[in-house]
Structure formats: C-alpha cells, structure tokens
Design goal:
Elements: H1 2-49, H2 55-83, H3 89-104, H4 113-122
Helix pairs in contact: 1-2, 1-3
C-alpha cells in the first residue's frame, strides 16, 4: 500500500517537474522516487528474510533493516549526484524527501478491510 502511494507521488512529480524543467527534471524526480521506493523494498526484504520470535529479535531485525536502508539511500544519493551531471537537485531531493515521508506514514495505513469498514460505519 505504501509503495503504491510512493509510486503515485513519484509519477505526479515526474509529470510536474518534466513540465517545469523538461527531461532532466522528470528524470531527476524519477530517480528521487525510485531511490526511496527501492530503499523501502530493501527494508521490507530484510524484515521478511529474518523473522524474529522475541521482542529483542524484532528490534535487532528492525535496526538491521533500517541500517541497510540508510546505507542504500546514501549510496544511491551519492551515485545519482555524482554520475548524473544534469540532475535537477531540487527535483531529485524533493521527490526523494516526499516519498520518504510517505514511507514514514506507513504506521497510519491499514489494509485490514474490517478496520476500514468499522471506521466508515462509525464516522
């Protein structure tokens, strides 16, 4: 669900920045969004690969996943900013930042149909 919203925002930013700054603006927005989406995939893969059975194990796995996500982000930011000479930094970093914020909102999103229906009925 969260990656879908990240993808939607990335697509919107690609269109907007493509209109404002042309091809390099669109490519920069795309790279910013993909960096965030891919880092979320790295985080999810590590969480899925190392299921924990104790509270301490859950924390250790979460810290490992977060550390790998941060390392991946730093590597991708460095690669894009050093290899793509025509990067529109505002578009790249801006799209990246917005999609990272969306990943942080994952705690507030539910896929549970019963919870959604219950909120709909009480609201």
């Amino acid at each position: 669900m969260v990656m879908r919203w990240q993808s939607i925002v990335t697509a919107a930013m690609v269109m907007v920045l493509g209109f404002v700054w042309g091809l390099h603006g669109a490519a920069s927005a795309f790279l910013g969004g993909v960096t965030s989406i891919a880092s979320a995939a790295v985080f999810a893969a590590i969480i899925a690969r190392y299921p924990a059975s104790t509270p301490a194990g859950v924390l250790i796995t979460a810290f490992k996943a977060e550390a790998m996500k941060v390392i991946f982000i730093v590597l991708m930011l460095w690669l894009v900013l050093t290899l793509y000479k025509d990067v529109v930094a505002v578009g790249f970093i801006g799209t990246f930042a917005i999609t990272v914020l969306i990943f942080g909102m994952a705690l507030f999103v539910t896929d549970d149909a019963e919870a959604i229906e219950s909120r709909r009925q009480t609201g």
